[in-house]
Amino acid sequence: MTDRDEAHDSRPDFEATQGNPPAPRTDRPAQYSRTDVSQPSSVRRAPDVLCRIAAPFLAEISVIAQQLVNKGWAEANAGNFSFRVSGVPEFPGSYRQLPYTLTELGNWALLTKKAGVRMGELADAPLGGLCLVRLNQTGNAYCVLDDEVPTSELPSHLAAHSVLNKIRPEHTRLLHTHPTALVALSLLYPEPESLVALLIRSLAEVRQLAHDIVALPFIEPGTVNLGNATARAFGRASAVIWPRHGMIASGRVLAEAMDLIEVCDKAAQIALLAREPARRESGRTRGRPCHSGRGRPAADGIETFLDVRVRDALLSPEEFGQLPRRPIHIVLDNLRSAFNVGSIFRLADAVRAAEVITCGYTCHPPHHKLEQAALGSTQTVPWRQFENVVTCLAELHSKGIQLVALETVDGARLYHEFEFQPPVAIVLGNEALGVSQSALQTCDAVIDIPVFGLKNSINVAAAAAVVLYDLVRRYDWLPD
């Protein structure tokens, strides 16, 4: 059996381990030696319990730790892993309260890395860098063998294992590491949907695994918030990207988790290489410092990255779908720009509008340019498509919905003086031609936004934002 085969042959259940643990290594510190045979079996030093439980996994840990060192993904004491183990007997120690109850992990244990231990040390002598964490029966508190200090990412490991134990019980391992290219790419593309989309475009293998990969917004490492978001992500995937902090993946063996991380990092390398010629060309043609394409650089050429939009991870799409929607229907009458449509979808998501209705030749999902601006909001905003805008408006009118067009015509009323009567449909027209005459004649009213420049109107998505947020403010729809 090769080292790799031996690593894959490990068993997660401590009770299933037959025979005695392997004889102590001569280079192992004395505190990890077997208990003296003259002692009763019930009187065991705690490290001996760890030795017996960890024995089936040591070869697997050593192999993966060495791979991480070879790849340069194990700087300082970075990276960690955990094994979910059943049948571990209770051991002495004080229990520490968890901020949540993990029912699925009641009486289970995690074998994980101690805080401050380097992967290189684990590659050479894995047992000395391990600690054992056991949960109580209810899953709301845990005890650490010998009061060791476990990895700082323990909250994320516990929360993720609780989900995996329920929906993918065969995935008993978690591996977290810092793949260099993926971390670099997440700095340039911190928006989760954009990051995953770029990885999918960069490597065919990622496309095949797309259903197994989720990216989160940046959340402070080692926090309960990161644990909660990670657990929700593992509910629908086997690998989770933590922007600026690497990736965590699950598997039946650590090598399986490692495969997922390696594929994503390879895609990130390709994306960075493909971007480099364009970056150099941009620097030559513009005569100014190059930047990532995410907006303009600052005057000194330094582009800043602010930790924003972390609320994306606080609710799952399913939980978000249960929230009440504002009685606002957005009707798009023959818009020509897919990017404007995508921006309006994102705006509709922001105000939690009832729906977006595309009419005529207005593009609708799925559409790649629309998705570039929508950033995934087409998955959270209800939408419909009508061939004819008048047919659409007639249906809305039959349901008692007020029809209001936003257009610069004679007789239009100023939007901030108009009395809306929700539920209301806001009709937005073509960027050059405006709302069609047939739609204007069908609407109950026409409103306008005052402008004071040479142009008599503003961008359709910007105009929609002005009116929709005025509605949200006016009808006190801001608080939940």
List keywords for this structure.
480 residues; alpha/beta; nine-stranded mixed beta sheet; seven-stranded parallel beta sheet; 16 helices; disordered N terminus
Walk me through the topology.
Elements: H1 3-8, H2 46-54, H3 58-71, E1 80-85, E2 96-97, E3 109-113, H4 119-124, E4 130-135, E5 141-144, H5 154-167, E6 173-177, H6 180-188, H7 192-202, H8 204-208, E7 213-215, H9 224-234, E8 239-241, E9 247-251, H10 254-286, H11 317-321, E10 326-333, H12 338-351, E11 353-359, H13 368-374, E12 383-386, H14 389-398, E13 402-406, E14 413-414, E15 424-429, H15 437-442, E16 445-448, H16 460-474
Parallel strand pairs: 7-8, 10-11, 10-15, 11-12, 13-15, 13-16, 14-16
Antiparallel strand pairs: 1-3, 1-6, 2-5, 3-4, 4-5, 6-9, 8-9
Helix pairs in contact: 5-9, 6-10, 7-10, 12-13, 12-16
